Amino acid sequence: MKRFVKNYIKYRYFLRELIKKDIKLKYRNSVLGVLWTLLEPLLTMLVLVLVFSSLLGRKTENYAVFILSGRLIYSFYSGVTKQSLKSIRSNSGMIKKVYVPKYMYPLSSAFSNYIMFALSLLVLLCVALTQKIYPTVYAFQALYPLAVLFIIGLGSGMILSVMNVFFKDVEYLWNIFLMLLMYASAIFYQAESVINETNKYIFKLNPLYCIINSFRHAVFGTAMESWDVMYSGIFSISVLLIGFIVFIKNQDKFALHL
Amino acid sequence: MSEYSIMAEKISMKYRLPAQKVDNLKEYVIRLLKRNLQYKEFLALDEVSFNACAGDRIGILGLNGAGKSTLSKIVAGVLKPSCGKIYRKGKIAPLIELGAGFEQQYTGRENIFLYGSMLGYKKEYIASKLDEIIDFSELGDFIDIPLKNYSSGMKARLGFSIATACEPDILILDEVLSVGDAKFRKKSEQKVKSMMKEDTTVLFVSHSLSQVEAICNKVMILDHGKCIFLGDVKEGIAKYEEIIA
Fold first, then answer.
1. What number is the ipTM of this complex?
2. From the CA of B241, how many Å to the nearest CA of chain A?
3. Is the CB of A256 less than 8 angstroms away from the CB of B16?
């Protein structure tokens, strides 16, 4: 444990460099630069609002804020897992030639995605204000789902990065799973409008839905539901623990399989 | 134990070469069901043991595929041996396949910080050595141009300059003294010599017997993963010449 901490401190600066590289390269050579982080969710939201409320004639209150809050959380999760999944394989050149603690690669993906995600929350704030939804004391609750989101993102990313070293097609399977997850997380419809006794478990056992639901409660100024809080917390910490163990157990084999 | 800076005890390195490489889940499952998962094993290093005191300069000789690079990577910590133990003491500078972590879209200057951090340098340390590194690499104004526009010689020079910007206790050299043009090669040889102080331990992998003779005080010969000789330089070189003759 002591060695672990010492090693982390030695390579702390490397972690920072990796995060910086991720963010810098994403927007280098683009005219709008970091503005894209803000524009992208805004435009997606506009499309969804247009399709669902104008064309399909759904009447949901505060639909724009509703969609955006779900969509931002989902896209963080899908972004961070997709990137961590590739993190070991795409850095294989370094891993085979220089020693660094290997968990730095998925960890840096998690951090850089989280920083972008935090920025895009500004868009949510602006949209909410224009819709006359003002933050209340309940807004502080948002810290909890946001923390849980980071934990589950990092944990899943670590597991996936290991699997992708040994099996290349995990990437395609994961993309399909992510699509399924999107539809099962009630991002552009209200769970209440489709929920019944037989399909209730789809939502209640889906940690991402629980996180999104808690976050929406915080945004709209109501108290979070205790099941969501407990379940998402326990699930995420378990995923992180499993991810960590799987990673540590397999990391010495990476150089042989890449 | 304390007087040694490197202690290797019966290091073996086994690579598992799948008879036909299985790297996706689909094929893995199919083969698992057919009970057709066969692996061939390949022993790259076979119970190699050696000790090096501070100040020892060991030349490692051997034909291609003898396990030289595997050994230097194990000492550098990149690979973990399948069995056996290795102890290392002090700061290690591995000069193996330089420039492996360069980012093509970054400028040379940005790459100095990225690559330096990967080697475990601190930010302040890199900043203090920045001018020296740029100077030594002879890149001049190219330092602020993205790496993708560099020639391979320029990249190699930059990699060498960054990796040698420290004062290591253990120096691992794996055929890096053939970087760049003749002029730079001469300069890099001098640089490496200046890094070898009295108490620096050196592992030197090379095919050049004259370089080994000039630098080392001990020679190890590897043959198909086995250490077949470890000892005096002159004796070792004579023996190696017998093998290649």
1. 0.86
2. 30
3. yes
